[in-house]
Amino acid sequence: MNQSSFYPVGTPGLPWGEAEREAWRSRQRVQRSYADDVLRRIDALRARWEVSQYGELDYPGARYPLFALRSSGWREELPVMLVTGGVHGYETSGVHGALQFAEQHAADVAGRANLLVVPCVSPWGYERIQRWNAAALDPNRSFYADSPAQEAAALMALVAPLRHRVATHIDLHETTDSDENEFRPALAARDGKPFEPGTIPDGFYLCADSARSQPAFQQAVIAAVAAVTHIAPADPDGTIIGSPVVAHGVIEYDYGRLGLCAGITDAPYRTTTEVYPDSPRATPAQCNAAQVAAVAAAIDFALAHPAG
């Protein structure tokens, strides 16, 4: 099948220009509220967390303040545990899992580590249930110097002073059915390439950094999540979303080459979660709980196994 069968913007075989990007933007509609869903919950955490604005997205007709949560008892000598959610705004449990972790676990590592939680990196995408930002860029392929993505540039600036002190970074994501029926066709259309159908795994999995995979760390996270929801099996060819499975529920990407969020620090322990919210075997509450379990396990492992 060719890309024109799947996506209504652009001319098959030709990359988008500004006219096509504008046509794509005109199709996006606000479907939920960042203020109601995210900012209200952040405000309710001010008594237990230090809340700070680290930037603001400025798009035509839409401005969004960006907020981070820091441990209220921040101590400079302690390692930093970084949690990010909503890099892809449409991935709901990434945002709500980060918030739920902040609501439930603020005091868990008091005196042992500093927590830095950024619940919603891409509020424009959150409101429109969209993978890309308003410039039709994927923030999670944009974490590199002089990034054209406002979301990525703001987060990198926030984290830059801490990058050598981060012990673990866990970036919360989802793989959804809409990846296959909307976002991958859109990517093919935008780049003027043919759409190649793929598969969507049924279950939770992790994407480790191929340059620093830390297998024991990844398996500790998988084990914790398995108590909450099911782990995705490999496809018959031994892959998940086309990447070889290197351990139960784990694949690897080259974070640096791809400009992925979880590669923005020197953290020895880093991973990207992938929840499957469209599974008939999982509820929204389970998806959020899986993200929380993954974060807690990642932090516990990093504290128990400090890297030299």
From TrEMBL:
Alphabetic keyword roster: Hydrolase, Metal-binding, Zinc
GO biological process per UniProt: proteolysis
Xref: InterPro entries: AstE_AspA_cat, Peptidase_M14
Cofactor(s) annotated in UniProt: Zn(2+)
Single GO molecular function: zinc ion binding
Alphabetical list of PROSITE patterns matching this protein: PEPTIDASE_M14
Domain Peptidase M14 positions: 26-308
Membrane-crossing residue ranges in chain numbering: none
Domain of life: Bacteria
CDD domains xrefs: M14_REP34-like (cd06231)
Record-stated family: Belongs to the peptidase M14 family.
Protein name: Peptidase
